[in-house]
Amino acid sequence: MNPTIQLEQRYLVRAYNRPPFVLDTGQGVWLQDTDGNEYLDLVAGIAVSALGYQDPEIVGTIVTAASKPLHYSNLYHSEPMARFAAHLVEATPFADRVHFQNSGTESNEAAFKFARKWARQHYGEGKTDIVSFSGAFHGRTMGALATTPRPKYQDPFRPLMPGARLGQFNDPASAAEIIDDNVCAVILEPVQGEGGIHPASNEFMVALRELTHKHNALLIFDEVQCGVGRTGTFWAHEPYGVMPDILCAAKPLANGLPIGAVLVSERVAEVIHPGDHGTTFAGGPFVTAVADVVVRRVSDPAFLAHVEATGAYFKERLEALNSPHIQEVRGRGLMLGVQLDVPAAPIIQAGYGHGLLLLNAGSDVLRLVPPLIITPAEVDVAIERLAETLDQVG
Prior knowledge:
The protein has about 400 residues and is α/β, with parallel strands linked by helices. The protein folds into two domains: about 5-55 and about 300-394, Aspartate Aminotransferase, domain 1, CATH 3.90.1150; about 70-300, Aspartate Aminotransferase, domain 2. About 40% of the residues lie in helices and about 20% in strands. It has helices at about 5-10, 45, 55-65, 80-90, 105-125, 140-145, 150-155, 170-180, 200-215, 265-270, 285-300, 300-320, 345-355, 375-394; strands at about 25, 30-35, 40, 95-100, 130-135, 165, 185-190, 190, 200, 220, 245-250, 260-265, 325-330, 335-340, 355, 360, 365-370. The strands form four sheets. Strands 4-12-11-10-7-5-6 form a seven-stranded mixed β-sheet, sandwiched between helices. Strands 1-2-3-15 form a four-stranded mixed β-sheet. Strand 2 and strand 3 (about 40) form a beta hairpin. Helix 12 packs parallel to helix 14.
């Protein structure tokens, strides 16, 4: 057995099932294990490595940032954090300010706190409930978990945060029934990730905005996975023409370094005061220096046009695959879901033998979220290897 795997099995909490190889190096959209096997990566660290591996500008920024102090804490001003905050807010039309976190689930937790503080200050006690929807995934900490309606994730850890309500995704009537004046916030992913790559409908997004206005609640978009260029626009909600009050981002922001962000309008920001929320590590100079490169590169219109065009090509090639196991292909940009008539796990396992890293979204959906720099030629390689994998499983 590989000595690294032996060490993991002896010393790590067994919270993950990992394949029997150890990844070691990478370049572009390709990864290599310690035995020299090469894999075309359609996972990107779970939609994280937007610019792929060993990007020269990212590497250069890391080297430069590492020559200075890595951490000051939020007790002090930091030029990289301030610069990145300005650039991120400028790339987000509705937003006026940002608060940095360390991850997506922390960003959602902060959004819930901000929403409850906002509601309490403007409307008094009792307006504390938070609405999420079927198929959602907002994280695994206790507040975020309460809005992630999956018994597998929730049941071992009950009781959860009180005040969480559940509606049906893409069902405006269900939303109208469940949202009332005791709700302080409504949260949804414009394109659901873990739930199976399901985009919200235009009707649903408009209805949620109208309902939150009607009941004086905040609208939160969880773009932890679908944001920062993944769908072919910088933010996934842009094509809908609907603006949130709070937006949460994380995964791709620093191309693999841990960072989250809560973007807010001024009417939300004005109720948050020193001491209301805090974090030791978030927004440090090292990670924000790298994140600033990612946002500048990904927000470029030419880069986004590449994502949109390559994603459309990938979807077209998937739809043309002659496999009886594929029932539907859905998604936008380079966030694609392949609905199967068989479990995804055996296909993911078989993919390793064909040099493919694949990911599921639920039990029977393949989730394809490669680095955003993938080329049409590499898409062709992915399709060829995926076809071989599906044939093998079939």
